[in-house]
Amino acid sequence: MAAPPILRRESPLINHRLTALSSIPELSGAHPALKARGVRVDCPASEIDKGKAMSEEMIRLGRERRFLVLLGIICLALIGGALYMQVVLGEAPCPLCILQRYALLLIAIFAFIGAAMRTRGSITLFETLVVISGLFGVAVAGHHVYTQFYPAVSCGVDVLQPIVDGLPLAKVFPLGFQVDGFCSTPYPPILGLSLAQWALVAFVLVVVLVPVLTRRNRKRLN
To answer: Does residue 96 register a pLDDT over 50?
Structure first.
């Protein structure tokens, strides 16, 4: 049975249009209307790989943010432990003790701010500030430990006390940030180490673990 004349006349035009459509490249993912109508849309492999990389980066940065939150909580807990020993056990804080509390507080603040960031660069910035605060804590705690081993060496109480007491937190929260003791005063050790030695261990761990864990976490992203 022969095709109607109208279809015979339209056949070359239809074939021409089908040929033109077949030459169009694969549709990208920028056609949500087609997806809504159930039309199959093929995405290039490069777009899929890019999406996977972005998802992997978000997962790894989320892991870093959780680590920073944990670090901030630990630092605040250490300050709370120092306050407990001061108020309950009667261990008066010296100038170096107060400076170590400032270092812990700075680490906690930078860690919490870094955990609130969303980009890799901003998180790296506050992790760097955390490490710098940890280095300050290492210097202060190391000098405190040296002073305890050599009590004849002054910790600079005459020089440091007015400086430390003149800081804003000493007036806002004098119980926690005002000098009330001497650096060479011996107190009972905790598990064989003095409070200054434990503080030195904590600061060293911060300085070492933050960059190491960050590097390991981002190793596959680079």
So the answer is: yes
List, in order of start, the domains of the chain with CATH numbers. 58-217 (1.20.1550.10)
CA distance 83 to 176: 7
* pLDDT score, position 21: 46
Give 220's DSSP letter. Answer: T
Whether the model pTM is above 0.85: no
- Burial (CB < 10 A; 0-12, 13-18, 19+), residue 28, is exposed
Residue predicted with more confidence, 151 or 2: 151
Distance CA 170, CA 177 (A): 5
Amino acid identity of residue 163, one-letter, is: I
- Residues 111-141: tens digit of each pLDDT: 999 999 888 889 999 999 999 999 999 999 9
Give the Å distances, CA to CA, from 140 to 12, 36, 80, 165: 88, 63, 19, 16
